[in-house]
Amino acid sequence: MSVHARVTRGSLLLLLLAGWSLPIWEGYAHSEKLSASEHQIKAAFLYNFVQFIEWPASAFKDAHSDFSLCVLGDDPFGTALERTIGGKIVKGRRLAVKRSGRLHDLTDCQLMFISSSERDHLTKTLDLLAGSSVLTVGDTDQFAHLGGMINLYVEENKVRFEINPQAAERSGLKISSKLLKLAKTVPGTSGK
Amino acid sequence: MRRTVLYVLLVSAWAVTCLAQAQGDLPDLTKMSLEELLELEIVTSTRNVKKLRDAPASAAIITASDIEEYGYRTLDEALRSVTGLYVANDRNYTYLGVRGFLIPGDYSNRVLLLIDGYRVNDPAYHSPTLGYLLPVPMEAIKQIEVVKGPGSALYGSDALLATINIITKDGADLSAAAVKGEGGNKSTSRSVLSYGKKLSPQSDFVASGLFYQTNGDAVVKSPGIADIHDADAEQSYLGFGKFRYGDLALSVSGSHRSKDVPTGSFSTLTQKGTSTLDEYVFTNLRYYHAFDSTKNLSVSTSYNTYDYDGHYLIAGPLDSRDQLRSSWSRSELQFQWDTTTRNRFMLGGAYDRAFKVKQRVFDAVSGDTLNINTPTWSWGVFVQDQLSVTPDLDLVLGSRFDEYRDSSNAATYRAAAVYRPVKDTTLKLLFGTASRAPTLYELFYADGATLVANPHLKLEMITTYEAEIVQRLPGGIEGTLSVYKYKFHDLLSQVGIGGGQLQYQNIGSSKAKGLEIDFRKRWSQGLALHLGGIFQKARDGNGATRTNSPSSILNIGVVVPIFSKRHTLALDLQYLSSRKTLIGGDTGESSVTTVNFRSRDVFGVKRLDFTAAANNLFNERAFIPGGNEHRQDLIPSPTRTFLFGLEFRF
After folding, report:
1. Of all residues in chain B, what percent carry a pLDDT higher than 70?
2. What is the predicted pLDDT for the residue at B174?
3. Which domain holds residue B622?
4. Average pLDDT over residues A156-163
5. Please, what's the b/e burial string for A151-178 (b: 16 or more CB within 10 A of its CB; e: otherwise)?
6. How many Cα atoms sit within 13 Å of B526 on the Cβ side?
């Protein structure tokens, strides 16, 4: 090892120890984490969608009932859903997460995330939910084209979303213009 | 040994201070706005922070859509599009140059290549697998991450000039089978078969294979030596498969390539008859477990082989044979912990063992000139900590210690500061050191004629300083400006020792400084533009310009949608200024232009794509400098190649 390299090494080690032993600043709002897993990000999107969409009062059982976020099929989020948004208060209601592989087990849902495991009977599922004030969200190719309301997809390593506004309108949901502006819009299918 | 103990103590002390900051508060993504969420990059690799513009390194990413649009058919074609990188093809192998360094005879051993995080460089030459030696078809690559500058503080030996990590596609990315066939002039054919499927939420399978064949140029005309006919053929088959079940992933890959050598290299006859054959097999088993969103562990073990056979036509029918038989394993462990939302701590280690590295030189008359087996081992440990001092300032400190079989060792460091004074500006200050252990080829290879062994070689080191500004310009253009200064110590290089003999020696220092500038924009209609340039000076110990070191390189990349995004025409151009050759001549300026046309859903058939491409579109006669093993000072680059292809997915 050359003298130069040894000097560099010594001074770096000192810097290392000094710098890292300093007390760390406290009390600032840390607004930005550098990166997150795909499903952590997707879970945060679900939370945001709820903020920017208006449900009709009839979508809830009563004024005190939870806001139910339901996952139909295999849950791709793992623990990301609870960890990212579980227990939050949205629209003055407690956010509850429900999961099932069968649609009729999931009652009183305001947001239905339809897992890609349901891809084979997606059209049928969406038909059953149509007109019922349930926001349908998925991350399956063609989800919005087939009548789903919001589809999350990955482009250039970032999570993006596309909206089918007609599908949401038919269910009495009001999507804010801000959300529409950030989304790619997908024309609704005719019929349903 | 005492130094080692001291080092381990100091680093442990540091590790403890980092861990002492553990507070366990989780990142709150729900506090982020939609706009911020849309900008957030997804983590795929565990060692890198993935928001590219804020990465604590000079980094570039080549995505699957870049590969498709520009029609990159080999890794080096894709890498050439990264500002500061250039390639040389000596008609036998392909070499990668970075920021003015492409040292003849180095087999690119200062560039580390990883596939899904596992090391590809072999124990004999420390070469990355470029060209059709890469065991993964380009069609099966999700992303190529290129980090310029030293990476030894994370990855150990060989990561001096650049670290390249290839992320392969998962079954879920393909969700189908794909068949692709391409054909063109010079009897060139290239076929790829891929299949991938997410079998269940727990399991995923993907496999992809490629067959490539070309006759190459019918005549290779090098200045100063006789024309060589019908000796440029190449044939390669390669493939990879990956199966994931829960936290476990198994991948198997390999490549087999034969190439005729039309240069009369290594004092062979200037006619057909000299060829090389290379074969790699990699097997890697990885366990990745995320304990929660803040802690994850990755453990992997691999078993790999690399065999090489050279047939060198010396005189008449005499065939001098050159052989390598090698097998090695590598076990790695890495733990990452976000101790707070502001602090990410990483700790890891690796143990490498080469069971067999047999180098042999022989012919029918003299028998064995060289026949040695030099098994070897090495181990290394690293720690890295990334701290967000304020929301606008990140600091990274990392260090690694490696020890090798001859008990030589290396400590390497990196330090980075990333500062965002305003929303659209990122400033980076980067410092790094890296080392490379001499390869077993450099140490022990002797062919009894030209190359003489040198078992007393030392490690070589590089120290680098770099400053970079990433600026989002009006109109959504992403601009990057970097300046850097590199210094090599004990640089290993082939040196003439009289009597026409060559030996690898630690010949002292080499310095380089340069400026890189890069602009990128992608319009939503599918139009994309990339402009890049590097202006650099790389000097050897005597202050003379290095060989094969262009003082400027310009890159232009354009993707133009035709009528709709369904049809795209892409153009990729690289200009290199004149490079000095080994005997002091120059190559003259050169440029290479590649075009690729792609049309989706052709002939009214859904999922049927048509491609047409031309490599060296204007059929320019360009040269690269020959190495010590070559008779000629200038080696001509391949002439124009056309390829037409169809791809069908079902």
Report:
1. 94
2. 84
3. 2-649
4. 86
5. bbbeeebbbbbbbbbbbbeebebebeee
6. 15
Q: What is the mean pLDDT of residues B92-99?
A: 96
Q: What is the distance between the alpha carbons of residues B293 and B563, in angstroms, rounded to a whole number?
A: 45
Interface ipTM above 0.90: no
A-chain residues within 8 Å CB-CB of B399? 12, 16
Rounded mean pLDDT, B80-100: 96
Instruction: Collect all residues of chain A within an 8 Å Cβ-Cβ radius of residue B29.
Output: 33, 36, 40-41, 43-44, 47, 84
The enclosing domain of B630 has a CATH number of 2.40.170.20
List b or e across B601-633, with b for residues whose CB sees 16 or more CB atoms inside 10 angstroms. ebeeeeebbbbbbbbbbeeeebbbbbbbbbbbb
> What is the pLDDT of chain B when averaged over all its residues?
90
Spell out the domain ranges in chain A: 38-185
CA B227 to chain CA centroid, nearest Å: 32
Query: At which residue do the structure tokens 């992809």 appear?
Result: B208
Domain count, chain B: 1
Mean pLDDT of B479-490: 95
User: Cβ of B17 and A48 within 8 Å?
Assistant: no
Contact A88 B30 (CB under 8 A): yes
Query: Is there a contact between A35 and B50 if contact means CB atoms under 8 Å apart?
Result: yes
pTM of the model: 0.77
For A38-185, the fitting CATH number among 3.30.110, 1.20.1740, 1.10.3470, 3.40.50 is 3.40.50
Question: In the A/B pair of chains, how many CB contacts fall below 8 A?
Answer: 150
Q: Is A74 close to B201, i.e. CB distance below 8 A?
A: yes
Average of pLDDT values for B299-315?
94
Q: Which chain B residue shows the shortest CA-CA distance from A13?
A: B10
CB contact under 8 A, B50 and A29: no
> In a 3-state reduction of DSSP, which class is residue B95?
strand
Which of A16, A41, A47 has its CB closest to that of B40? A41
